[in-house]
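A student in our group prepared the protein record below, which I am reviewing. I have pasted the whole thing underneath without changing anything:
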Amino acid sequence: MADLRTRFPWTTTMPLVALLALVATWGRDLNAMAFVLVALLLGAAVLAAVHHAEVVAHRVGEPYGSIALAVAVTIIASRMPLGSAALRRCGA
C-alpha cells in the first residue's frame, strides 16, 4: 500500500485544510491561538501555490517558466495588502 505522504502530498492537502479552516472560522471572533493556527495554514497554502508555480516553471523552461513564476508571485504578493484592506474595511 502506498505511503500517505505520496498519495496525499502536502502541496495538495495544505491548501484544502487551509480552505476548510478559513470557511469554518469566517466571520467569527477568534482567540489568539485559533488566529495563529489559521494564519499558519494560510501561509502553508501560499507556500504550496509557490511550489506549484515552481514546478510549472521548471517544466515549461526558459523564458516562459520564469515569466509564469514571476506572475504567480506577483499575484500572491498583490493579494496580501488587498486582503488586509478588506479586513480593515470590515472592522476586523
About this structure: The chain is about 85% helix and 0% strand. Residues 32-92 form one domain. Helices lie at 4-7, 10-25, 32-60, 64-90.
